[in-house]
Design brief:
Number of strands: 25
CATH architecture of the largest domain: 6 Propeller
Radius of gyration: 21 Å
Structural class: mainly beta
CATH class of the largest domain: Mainly Beta
Number of domains: 2
Distance between the termini: 22 Å
Number of helices: 2
Helix content: under 10%
CATH superfamily of the largest domain: Kelch-type beta propeller
Order of helices and strands: HHEEEEEEEEEEEEEEEEEEEEEEEEE
Length: 362
Amino acid sequence: MTARGTRIQWPGDVAGAVVLLALGLLLSAPLATLAPRLAAAHEAAVGAWTRLAVDADWPGPRWDHTLAADEAGERLILFGGRDGEGAPLGDTWRFDLASERWEQIEGSGPAPRFGHAVAVDQEARELYLFGGQADGAPFFDDAWRFDLETGAWSEIGTGDGPRPSVRYGTSAVFDGEGRLLVSHGFTFEGRFDDTWALDLETGAWTDVSPPEGEVRPLKRCLHEAVWDAANGRMLLFGGCSSGVGPCPQGDLWAFDPAARVWTELSPAAGPAARSNPALVIDPANARALLLHGLTENGNAADAWALALDHAEATWTEVAPTADGDVPAARFSHDAAILGDRLYLFGGNGDGGALADLWALDL
């Protein structure tokens, strides 16, 4: 049984009138302003949210976890986080899109943690995990590989050479060339502004930060980063720089790993500054999607699209089709795109930890 949102069907005469009115408004606009408006409308176009039903066997409420997509297996992979009491979790779950059922993966794996980061090599069908935090003071600097086909975890041997320090609230992306890029993060000793590359074949870490004195994003944690394959860059947004700068942050940066250069992007307008959002790449529509997060005014429930095929960075607020319920405001959730839908799970809402799974038609 599939859980899909109900569509509202407009009567033919009403729909026709709406189309004619829209055409009239577009044709009356100056041609110089028409193309940007049409492009923005396309970038912000999404369908409806659908809350997916769950069986008795499913992940419990959590936040500060990770959610990733297994494209070939048509499954979502969820790991760790913290429960409603703040305790770290170390369980691994798969959600099968065909059956719409959760399955817990048994076996050994990373120690329970939250605030870790993951990225996926879809061709190799491997998920990579770095860092995180457990109860109290323990922070992690270990790296793990999860085989998406067999469902087995294995630790990546990284030797005794240079490596990023232990950290929580960090970010990780796969650069498409066999490297995991890790940037920024936090421990009780402060926040970081360094960027490292892990060679996934040799296990060797390399500090790819710009030289001292060169531009880089301010030290922070609880930000988000994604890999923009079309432009060969890592994008970093938001986070918290308390102690050294604003918390929350609302800045947007691009990192060229080949040149080891950070460039601040300065859209004319965009989402409110926030930490703990979800940020995902939607390559089919040449955009990145930002969802929810923690702002100065509390939990947010908005969504924004960042155009990736424009000469200048442009944010456009996304307005999902109002066919029914929508996800409540939250932070420390996670999201992943699989096929033509975006999936969002859990987080911390106004009432505490959440365990809901939502799908957004793209």
